[in-house]
Sequence to fold (233 residues):
Amino acid sequence: MSDLVKLGLYELVWNHPPLPDGELLAKVASPHARRTYQQAIKRFYGCIERDPWLVTPPAIEDYKATLLYAYAPAVVAVHLQVIRALYDEAVQRGLLPSNPAAKTSLPALSPERGVRLPPRALAAERAAHLPRHTHAGRRERALSLIALHTALSDEEVNALRVGDFLAEEGQGVLYVRRAEGRPPVRVVLPDEAKAALDAYLQERAVTDESPLFSSSPSWSQTAPPAPATDGRA
Fold:
């Protein structure tokens, strides 16, 4: 094997076990985050053009530049977080002495502004008429259905992370944190709301810690202002 160049699948297969991507994926709660991890790892392997066990910090910087050419900074940040987590897993298992992605900075991002739920009195009509073929339409429809079918507040919705939305026995479930130090409250969603959330998350690059809803224009830019009493619990 000593006469092989340090590139290519042949050397990777014969000289090393694979990086512990399976072990990393097993720790990811959300199926949407798991999909993102799989896509990010596959893209990384396809782009680095070298044995991933021999990747250096400069190679990670080059990969970051390649990502920034193709993707928005928020997507690049998620991809780099995944690669950093993959190498962290290898280090924790004693397979590598250090993480080549540890010091690669993430792109600067605008702070999350948070989202607002529409008043329940308007939620059903909005959900019925919002477009489903746009990212904003899918997001606002999911928010409208949560407003319609739950008693969650804006604050609780903005605290939700992607890993808090799970499928359990075919049902969509949100785990809502309402008090520090206490277990989260389990909120079961109707099928319509689960499907809307799945459709919204399907196109996003996310980790378990990503906000469930990304920053967006206020609902009031696409619907009338809330009345003084909106009837929400």
Notes: Residues 120-202 form a domain with the hpI Integrase; Chain A fold (CATH 1.10.443.10). Residues 1-7, 216-233 have pLDDT under 50 and may be disordered.
